[in-house]
Each structure stands twice: as C-alpha cells, then as structure tokens.
Amino acid sequence: MGVVAAGSHRHRRRQIIGWALFAVVVALIPFLIADTYSPTILGNRYTVGLGNLSQSVGLMVAILGLNIATGYSGQLSLGHSFFVGSGAYLTAVLVNEFHWSYLSTLGVVVPGLFVFGVLFGLPALRIQGLYLGLLTFAVAAVFPSIIRLDEVADRTGGSNGLLIDSDLEAPAWAPLDTVTGWLHAVPGVGSRVPDGLTGRQEEAVYKYFLLVIMALVCFWLVRNIVAGRVGRALVAIRDNPLGAAASGVDLAAYKTLSFGISAAVGGVAGTMLAMHSGFVGPDEFGFSMAILLIAGLIVGGSGTLHGAVAGGLAIQFVPHWSSQTQTLPGTDVALEGPYGTAILGGLLIAIIFALPGGAAHWFRRTKARLMPVAPQPPGS
Amino acid sequence: MPVLASVLGVFDITLDKLGDGELWLAQFFRGLSDGATYASVALALVMIYKSTGFINFAQGSLALLGVYLAYVFSVEQGLPVAVAVVCAMAASAAVAMFVERVLIRPFPPNHALPLVIVTLGLLLIIDSAVGIVWGFRTRSLPSMFPSGAPIEWGIAQLTWRTIGNLGTVFAVVGLLYLLLARTKTGLAFRAVSSNLESARLVGIRVGPTLGFGWALAAAIGTLGGALVVPDLLLEPSIMLRVLIFSLAAAALGGLDSLVGAVVGGLAVGLARNLLVTFLDLSELALATAVAVILVVLLVRPTGLFGSARVERV
Fold it and tell me: Model-level pTM?
C-alpha cells in the first residue's frame, strides 16, 4: 500500500474500515467463546472463558485510570488498587444493603472516588517521584487490613469477602439467543457457535456487552480529557513541571485534578470488577493488584489509550495462561509448585526487553511501517 | 480530665496501661529489635537508590534467597550459623551481581519505570523459585546470637538478640561509611552515584562499580533477613512483609541517606510496636507506619536525611 495523506478520503476510509473491523471482532467474540475455548499448545491444555475477557475489560479501565495520574501527568502511583478496591466495595455495600442496581451505584462511586482522589492528591503535591511511589505502595498494602477491621467487618465481610446479592440477568428485550441462532447458521464460523445459549451463558454474554459499553464510555471520556486543554497541561507537567508552571499551568490544581479523575475511573473499574464476579474480597485488591496494574501500564504503553487495552489483556491472560501451564512446554516434565508466578515474572521482564516503549509503541511503529500516512502539508 | 479520658476512650487507651513502665520498656526493646532488621534491609535499598536512582523491589527476594541458603548451610550442612550466614551473603552477592549484569545494565539508567518493572518481575521469579525448591513448609533458622537476656526489668527484657541486631546494624553502617569514605572503590562508587557521565569521563569503570553496589546491597539484605528470621519462621512470603516496612523506613529516612535508613528503620520499628500497643491498633500495624511516614514526608518531602533534588532551569 502506498503512502496516504492524513485527512484524505482514502485515509478516512481506512480509519472507518479499521474501526468497523474492531467493532465486528468485539461483537463476535462473546458468541465464539460462550462455550469455553480450550486450545492445546505444546502439550498444555488452556481454557479461556468469556469471564476472563470480561474481567480483562474491567482491568483495562483500571489501567486507564492509573494512566491519567502516572502515564499522562507523570506522578508515580503504585497504590491504584486502593481506588479500584474502594469502588468495588462501595458498589457491593450499596447493592447489598440498599438494594441499588449496579449501574446506579456509579452515581455514588464516581463523585465519591473523585473527592477521595483529590484528597489523596493533596499530599502528592509535596511528595514526589519515588517517595510518592513508595508511599502509595504502602497505602495499597494497607487496604486489605482496613477492610478486615473489626469496626467495619460486619459491613465489608472481613476476611471472607462479600457475595453480592444482585444477579445481572439479560433483560428480555436483548436478542442474544436469536443472534446466536443466526450465527450458528452462518457457514464456516457457525460450527464454533452453539445452537442456543443456556441461561448462564446468556448472562455471561450480557455482562460482557454491558462491561464493554461501560469501558467504551470511559475510554471516550478520557480520550476527550487527554486530547484537550487538560491533557496538554498534564503532559506538560510530566515532561517539565517548571516549564509548565512558567507557561501558566496551575500545577497544584491540575495535579490534584489528575488524581481525582484517576481515582474516579479506578472506582468505575472497581464497580465493573464487582459486576463481573459478583464477589469482592480484601486480598483481591491488595498490593499484588497494585503491582499488576503498574506492570500492565508499562507493558501496554504508558501515556497511551491503546496501552491500557493491551495492558488489561496482558495482566489478565498472562497470569491465567501461566497458571494453567502444567508441563514444560513441548515435553512431559511436570511442573509442580508456583511455576505460574515464575513464568509471569519472566514474561514481564521479557516484554520490557522486547518492547521497551510498551505494546502501544510497537503497534504504532508497525502500523506506520505497513501503512504509512503522510502528515498533511500545512496550509492545504 | 473527663474530656481527655473520653478522647483516649476512642482509642481504647486505659490510663493504667500508659503508666505501665515495664510495658513501655518491653515494647521499646521489641521496637529496637524489629527496627534493626528493617534498617538493614532499608540500608540495602538505599545503596541501590544512591547508585542507580531507583528502588529495587526484588531486594527482599534476594534476601529471601540468601536466608534459605543460610538455612541450607547451617541446618542441612551443619556449619555454625554465623559462618553459614557469611557464606549465604557471599552467594546472594554473586546472584545479585549476575542479575545486575544481565537484567539491569542493558537499560538506560535514567529511565526508572522499566527498571522498576524488571525488579518487580524478579521479585515474582525469585519468590516463586524459592517456593518451588524449598516448598511452603515453615522452617526455623537458629539465631546468630545466644538466647537469654542480660538485663531484665520485670517483663521488659533486653535480650542478647536485640543487642546483637542493633550491634550488627551499627557495625554495618560503620563499615559502609569506612568503605565509602576511605577506600578507592568507595570513592568510585560515590563518583558514579553523584554523576554517572562525569565518572565515566574520568575513567571510572561504571559497570563493575554498579555491580559491586548490587552485590554489597544483596549481602546487607541477606544479613538483615538472617536477623529477622529467628523472630518469625522461615517461609517464602516472609520477606515481603519485611520489605514493605523497610521501604517505608527508607522513605522516612530519605532514600539516599545511609544514616536515614537506620534512623528510619528504628523509627518504624518503634512506631509499630509502641503506637500499636498503646492505641490498641494491632490490626493496623502497617497503617500506623504509613501514617507516620505520611506526616514526616509532608513536612520533609525527601525524608528526614534525604538530600533535596536541585534542578537547573
């Protein structure tokens, strides 16, 4: 393919085709893996369910939130799991005790976490760099012990966690079963699609679409924030705080704002994870999640929107697959003990070596090489 | 007084507990003993931060590996504990040097974030490797110091172990100071940590110097681990808890100050034991430490002894 000028008809058409392909893939996947998909790779059997994908959509939004404070405005926060956990627990308590619907809890989660994030951002005005990283890491490690406190344990369920009462059943108007029937009739791919959906499968497919729509809304809102005045100010603060201040950026206001938005998006991610699993437990949101989120941010590509998507997929599926690897690939040697974690650590390091700017950076470079786009000449 | 009593009542403080001198002293000694172990791991973290400008999250894991090696040398091979610990320090130093050469040096030193992820990956690898090799059964490593207490005051005991822990940490700081201030290697190390480019230009071999820093840090961390383990029991997640308190200690004292690491470690150990006992916050030991650090960092953003970063515009 030849070089295409930015903004030309051909460029527009290519963009539209790209987005349409993306939409088709996102819409088809749940039907293809409504039954779990279990490939066998090098003697190991891996099982992927739709639930894994839904959870990774929640994690994408969590990384998106972290991206605002750390990726765009450059404030190292290792404690993002605290916000995600608070959002999840807030949703769980509101649904259980006040019988709210999941989506209506967002009305409390978003403003509540925004205010919380702003308060959290106030000390971050003075404490910077790795000091902030260490402090937030410690805060992340504290979260489970706060949940377990005797004073709140009867509300939060303490160590046992909370099972959320409300089920997300597909509403009657959603034609999921009908669509499945159509797809089953399509020659070729049809054999992969079941003839119809059982109740549980229908619920999983419905949840997936609900979470994808929530994620799309979050990504769209964040894109609008980072592509505009606020985003430019945040990037300026990251790249050169003194220069930004000299250009009239109010450092204090924008830094606290970035923590507020970051926490609010993290809270939404918590609500999504609670919706996905119908359960919240204290150790889910401890410092192992904090580590995974920052790893996902770097592996995906810090300061990019694509990076949050790639990172969410990575931190869901890499641990999932490595924990299912039972034998040394290609041989019969059985692996016993916590090999999954070791593989995860190895892959993290390998990805940092292979893709130094993260997956998003690699994706952009490859795309530029395969389908070059010439910038529009000025004045045309 | 009724006001005070009601305020204290919120924290479940009984005034007679506050007046209990023996309890104070007992918790004070325990705080010193815990603090010494946090301080030694914090010293290792500070060594890495001074030379490379980032935090080695795998520091606790290298120490974990070292402590298990010490277990093998002493309990399984029958060496005296002190000798076993020294051998383990040497072994973990060799591992750290290898790790630095293979995994750390290929990255540009001025980008901290990818390096932080590499050390997090290392943390996962080493911790699970220890779990794979030695399993999750708890073991006990004997202490390097004799049991018993030379000074007793009711329930408050100043044990040989507390004295030994404190003495070890002060000895390590003293030796580190001598090494950095009086030897050629130490001079090279200081030059690299103050300005990497200029150090290279005047002919210092930067790579081996950084490798030496890593080896030294791992050896100190292993020693810290060997101090911790007799109090707790040896199992693969033990250093993770110590690491969090030590990270807190390093931040409190200032990330680039050796003295700060010791003061920070002792402060975190004391805060943990004293505040937790008298405010009855046993479930919030870590949260208490975090709150103390938050307050200190708000007043002094680079810790108690850390040097503020000067920026040229």
Answer: 0.86
In a domain, B78, yes or no: yes
Question: In which residue ranges of chain A is pLDDT below 70?
Answer: 1-2, 34-38, 41-44, 188-192, 195-196, 328-337, 377-380
* Residue B310 binned pLDDT confidence (cut-offs 50, 70, 90): low
Residues of A in contact with B117 (CB under 8 A): 294-295, 298-299, 348-349, 352
Nearest CA of chain B to the CA of A359: how many Å?
13
A353 touches chain B (CB under 8 A): yes
Chain A interface, mutation test: which of B10, B117, B127, most A Cβ atoms within 10 Å?
B117
Range of the domain at B266: 2-299
CA-nearest of B217, B240, B267 to B43 is: B217
In a domain, residue A235? The reply is yes
Q: Which of B10, B12, B119, B120 to mutate to test the interface with A (most CBs of A within 10 A)?
A: B120
B311 close contact with A: CB closer than 8 A: yes
**Per-window interface: A 82-101 vs B, CB < 8 A:** none
- What's the gap in Å between the CA of B115 and the closest CA on chain A? 9
Domain tally for chain B?
1
Among partner residues B116, B135, B297, which is closest to A135 by beta-carbon distance? B297
Q: Name the residue with higher pLDDT: B125 or A356.
A: B125
Rounded CA gap, A179 and A197, in Å?
10
A3: in domain: no
Q: How many residue contacts between A and B have a Cβ separation below 8 Å?
A: 128
Residue B93 sits in a domain whose CATH number is 1.10.3470
Q: Is A298 on the interface with B (CB under 8 A)?
A: yes
Contact at CB, B244 and A138, closer than 8 angstroms: yes
pLDDT tens-digit series, residues A247-291: 989 988 999 999 999 999 999 999 999 998 888 888 888 878 888
pLDDT, average across residues B224-247: 83
Domain of A248, in residue numbers: 51-285
Residue A73 within any structural domain of the chain? yes
Look up the ipTM and state it: 0.80
Q: CB–CB of A337 and B131 under 8 A?
A: yes
Q: How many domains are contained in chain A? A: 1
- Put simply, whether B283 touches A (Cβ < 8 Å) is yes
B91-118 pLDDT, tens digit per residue, is 999 999 999 999 988 887 767 778 888 8
The residue among B124, B128, B132 with the most chain A CBs within 10 A of its CB, best to mutate, is: B124
